[in-house]
Amino acid sequence: MLLRKRIDPADYPLNAEEIEEELERVRYRGRFGESLRSTLFTLLVVSAAAVLVATLWMPVLRIYGSSMAPTLVDGDVVVSMKTSQFHPGDIVAFYYNNKILVKRVVAQSGDWVDIDTQGNLYINDTYLDEPYLTEKSYGETNIELPYQVPEGRIFVIGDNRELSIDSRNSAVGCVAEEQIVGQLVYKVWPLEEFGKLQ
Hints:
Layout: H1 16-57, E1 60-62, E2 77-81, E3 91-96, E4 99-108, E5 112-115, E6 121-123, E7 126-127, E8 147-148, E9 153-157, E10 175-176, E11 180-189, E12 195-196
Antiparallel strand pairs: 1-2, 2-11, 3-4, 3-11, 4-9, 5-6, 5-8, 6-7, 9-10, 11-12
């Protein structure tokens, strides 16, 4: 035979204040769970949006090597922007043999490019002033100069003219629009050099 003890409310005296506190605790736990779910959902949406923006519109790239020194050096982190309009002086990233290279645009399709033995650059017989350079060089040039940039392509050169392998060499050649990742617009690392790229 199972005996049950009768629960007497007098054994567990709760006053109205204690009942209200317990109800508030239960309500708080419900609000906290709701708030936590809402925060996690918001973070997930923001993260997904950031990944889409970084992948599709503004890729973030890390620089390896010294072909763009002194403008960009090994370890710099830059933000690029998808665009199809380029001008001489713009810095672009492009795909080449499963790698991403970074160079500076100096000429567009139809332009004539010439380089003298001192490394001075001429576009359509006009000397190109390049204030971003610290040293000029003829570099690894094996194309026949003057050279006309083919239709739908751009001619790119690294700022470190002595070491850079770029459009002056037939190994890389001129860059097609479909190869381009984007135009580099900001340097974000190191922080002391944060700013718009020139």
